[in-house]
Design brief:
Blueprint lengths: L12 E2 L2 E3 L21 E9 L6 H21 L5 E9 L4 H13 L5 E3 L4 H13 L3 E4 L6 H4 L15 E3 L4 H15 L4 E6 L3 H16 L3 E7 L8 H10 L3 E5 L2 H13 L5 E4 L6 H7 L1 H4 L3 E5 L10 H9 L10 H20 L4 E2 L3 H10 L2 E4 L2 E4 L10 E8 L2 E9 L3
Parallel strand pairs: 3-4, 3-5, 5-6, 6-7, 8-9, 8-10, 10-11, 11-12
Antiparallel strand pairs: 1-2, 2-13, 12-16, 14-15, 16-17
Helix pairs in contact: 1-12, 2-3, 5-6, 7-8, 8-9, 12-13
């Protein structure tokens, strides 16, 4: 989909560089220097996500997973002489708040990397702020293709606008068509009613679904735009029933999708509701009601994390970490986004004789572009647009009141 803290350097600045020396002792677990002095530099990785509000379940899963990555790096002493710290800011899924948070991160000249946001619309408001400051941004959840490939990406005129922007989630250029192929070829639904919330993520995703669905021979019997804040969708529910559609594709997020699905089915429409990764949450089932949600589909990025050998340690450590909230759809991708920044800091430090140079921000951006490692979600690396090279997607179906994976693969265009 869609939609992280600061870098505090607490060692002496000498000759324009921050030197990571071995003088003194390392900090112990609660931050106190053992011998009255420490040779560590504290690097705070920023995190931006909706930590309150209707999308907070996803945002808190992102925050907790980034926190786990930071704690793991410190426990392993992964970067010699560096202690990482996470500082999280709440954007409430609002572009204006995200832009303010981005400005806060940039204002502290010691910030070297930010994880987030969740929402593509929030990312749009943050990208230029970060890019002007040469500050790396790695999102675990944004899926709108234009963020990395420019507004004309669909016509093949792909241009990267911001070299500091990266993401570990694959894009809707693949996700929408992947859903369309499953709906038409395997679920055997041929008559669609398409609805979106007019936001960057939702409208873009609905558009890519529509294009592929029609290409396959499916008929679009109606389209509608809704205000997701309304929560009264009776008018559109009536239109869906009257249309004769057998599938509703919704481009948007679960806070509106749940009530929308419930009202459509209460109106008597014999349809399944399908959406993207922003529907892939237990919250969707809660809001729609288990009965109404039964049989609905959602696509999400990557393979089911519980099925990956690469995620075994993450799953165990998350449980041991005692986090109150679930890691949700983007937990593994948040961990990997955070680790990409950690890997980049390591590369910069190791390549500069144990020092963070004056232009550390720019160097970290360059280093993120070249990272390659086995992450929670599988191989993590970025292409020429800053997009993940991992194009895996999964279709989930609500069965017995919970999403269950039914197909995982890559889009065959």
């Amino acid at each position: 989909m869609r939609n992280r803290s600061m870098l505090i350097l607490t060692t002496a600045v000498t000759a324009g560089a921050l030197t990571l020396t071995a003088c003194g002792s390392r900090d112990d677990k609660d931050g106190a220097a053992k011998d009255g002095d420490t040779g560590n530099v504290t690097v705070t990785i920023g995190l931006d996500a909706p930590l309150t509000g209707e999308l907070s379940a996803l945002g808190l899963g992102i925050k907790n997973s980034a926190d786990l990555a930071v704690k793991t790096a410190n426990k392993k002493e992964y970067v010699k002489g560096v202690t990482f710290k996470l500082e999280s800011l709440d954007d409430q899924a609002q572009p204006s708040a995200g832009q303010q948070n981005a400005t806060k991160f940039v204002a502290d000249k010691t910030v070297l990397g930010v994880v987030g946001p969740l929402n593509s619309g929030v990312a749009e408001a943050m990208q230029k702020v970060f890019d002007d400051a040469k500050l790396a941004q790695v999102s675990p959840a944004n899926t709108n293709p234009a963020l990395s490939q420019g507004v004309n990406w669909a016509s093949g005129d792909k241009k990267r606008g911001y070299k500091s922007y990266f993401r570990t989630a694959t894009t809707d250029a693949i996700q929408g068509p992947f859903a369309a192929q499953y709906v038409f070829n395997e679920a055997k639904k041929t008559k669609a009613f398409i609805i979106d919330d007019k936001k960057t993520y939702g409208a873009g995703l609905a558009g890519t679904f529509k294009g592929e669905f029609e290409k396959l021979g499916g008929k679009v019997l109606g389209t509608e735009h809704i205000n997701p804040d309304t929560k009264d969708f009776s008018a559109v529910a009536t239109k869906v029933k009257s249309s004769g559609a057998d599938v509703v594709y919704y481009g948007g997020e679960y806070p509106a999708a749940g009530p929308l699905a419930k009202q459509i089915k209460e109106a008597g429409a014999k349809v399944v509701v399908v959406g993207g990764d922003a529907l892939f949450s237990p919250e969707y089932v809660k809001l729609a009601g288990a009965t109404a949600a039964e049989g609905d589909f959602a696509t999400s990025v990557g393979a089911p994390i519980e099925s990956l050998a690469s995620a075994k340690d993450f799953l165990a450590d998350y449980k041991t970490g005692g986090y109150k909230e679930a890691y949700e759809a983007y937990g593994g991708y948040s961990y990997d986004s955070t680790w990409a920044i950690i890997e980049a800091v390591k590369k910069v430090v190791d390549g500069n004789g144990g020092k963070l140079p004056d232009d550390a921000r720019a160097k970290v951006v360059e280093a993120v572009q070249g990272v390659s490692f086995e992450g929670v979600s599988g191989k993590v690396s970025f292409d020429e647009f800053g997009d993940t090279t991992n194009k895996q997607l999964t279709v989930y179906k609500v069965e017995g009141g919970a999403f269950k994976p039914v197909k995982s693969g890559t889009f065959g265009g």
